[in-house]
Amino acid sequence: MKKGLGARDWGLAELPKIFAVFAVFAFIVGSGVNAQPVTRRAANLAALLAYPGFYHGRPVVIVGKVALAQDGIKVSDDTASIRLVFKGNAPDGVDEIRGEFWDIGRMKPDEPRLSGYDLRSTFHFDPDGAWPRPGEVTAIVATAVTPAPPPAPAATPPIRAVVLNPSRYLEQKVTITGQYSGRNLMGDLPDAPNKSRYDFVLRSADAAIWVSNMRPKIRDTNGKEFELALDSRIDSSRWLQVRGTIQQARGLLWLDAEAGSLAVAKPPAEPVATEDETIRVPAAPPPTVVFSAPTEDETDVSLTTSVRIQFTRDLDTRTLRGHIRTRYLEAQSVERGEPTTPPAEFTFQYSAASRVLELKFTKPLERFRTLKVELLEGILGTDGQPLKPWTLTFALGGS
Fold first, then answer.
1. Is residue 80 part of a domain?
2. 207-237, pLDDT tens digit by residue?
3. Sheet holding 307-311, edge to edge
4. H or E element that contains 225
5. Which of 9, 87, 249, 369 is deepest in the core (most CB within 10 A)?
6. Are 138 and 276 contained in the same domain?
7. pLDDT tens column, 149-161
8. Which of 143, 140, 138 is nearest to 125 (CA)?
């Protein structure tokens, strides 16, 4: 019988309660914000550490040996190790770990997902010092650690087995079966090996792998040869079988295909790793405006002014365009007998470092008018929380 290693055995009883892992990019779950689930991806330590930006925040499954290290729990394989955050008993030996990959340097100190952790004891860095750079402090926040299943047959392994246990299959001749995905059309993998002009991806269950040095040509039921599209999803429903040698470099795996080995195949019956319940963290306060220049109802503002607006929380810059409006008061145009109110055209730039939105007008503003700046409904924080519509009004001077 295997002896489990619990939180107390590792001296980590002080770790805060860990809930289950978020679906990718679902930073806030809770009041009013719905997460869109993303399929868990099979990976390995070499891939996670080579492409932390790609895997950050993604639900992943990996295989490795869990053990106590000097600075906490680590999961390791033949190539690398990474910190594991887990509350529960981890079986001795080689385990399958499901959870979410975190690159702390890609988070901000007020990230809601970090609010329940003692950063110093859990991730072993000084939160009062310089914030880690991307890729410097990484971890898997696990929801399940179970004994890894027995290795698949070396000759015909599922793609998932190759991805989870790359060292077992490196330099081995194997035959794999997968669904055609052109040049990574589904975004399953972080980069391409660029071994040939015809490299393509095969995917199956929750895993994917590149195939190189094989032009994707197959024969239909009538024996007629035709080529699958590399840059269109038109052929992504097709399943293929191919033989070759497993290779690995730069955190990527690929099959160096044997000439003439590509054939049409039937989809295998492979189970996909089931999703765990999500981590639920308290929703952070929505972003609000804390400062503006000019200020509300300020008078005699320069005609060459720009508008600077600072927020309490970082904004999702994709939600700014189309949700900012500037205009002169129409009542003043009516008083002046103008048929139409002139526009106040602008460009904008957002600085994430200072959380400041700056509007610059494309030409000097109109003398002795009142300008109204509006942040409309639809602007969101990076955690999905909406900014309440906001208005700034100020009066322009004569110069």
1. yes
2. 999 999 999 998 877 778 889 999 999 999 9
3. 289-293, 307-311, 356-361, 346-351
4. strand 225-227
5. 369
6. yes
7. 887 778 899 999 9
8. 138
- Which one of 143-157, 201-215, 381-395 scores highest in mean pLDDT? 201-215
- E-assigned strand segments in 27-131: 41-42, 59-69, 72-76, 81-85, 94-103
DSSP 3-state assignment of 118? Answer: coil
Cβ neighbours of 346 (radius 10 Å): 18
**Token digits for 139?**
């971890």
Q: What are the residues facing 222 on neighbouring strands?
A: none
Question: Does residue 163 share a domain with residue 138?
Answer: no
String of b and e for 266-288 (b: at least 16 CB within 10 Å)? eeeeeeebebbebbebebbebbe
* Count of CA atoms in the C-beta half-sphere (13 A) of 97: 35
**Domain CATH code at residue 373:** 2.60.40.1220
Is the same domain home to 3 and 133? Answer: yes
What is the spatial distance between Cα 148 and Cα 95, in angstroms, rounded to a whole number? Answer: 4
242 by DSSP, 3-state: which? strand
Could you tell me if 165 and 246 lie in one domain? yes
pTM of structure: 0.61
Range of the domain at 7: 1-148+272-281
Cβ proximity of 138 and 104 under 8 Å: yes
Long-range contacts of residues 238-241, Cβ cutoff 8 Å, at least 24 apart: 238/179, 238/180, 238/264, 239/177, 239/178, 239/179, 239/180, 239/264, 239/265, 239/266, 239/267, 240/177, 240/178, 240/179, 240/180, 240/202, 240/216, 240/264, 240/265, 241/175, 241/176, 241/177, 241/265
**Closest Cα to residue 292, out of 312, 321, 320?**
312
Q: What is the pLDDT of residue 381?
A: 87
Helix (H, G, I), strand (E, B) or coil at 106: helix
Distance CA 3, CA 386 (A): 48
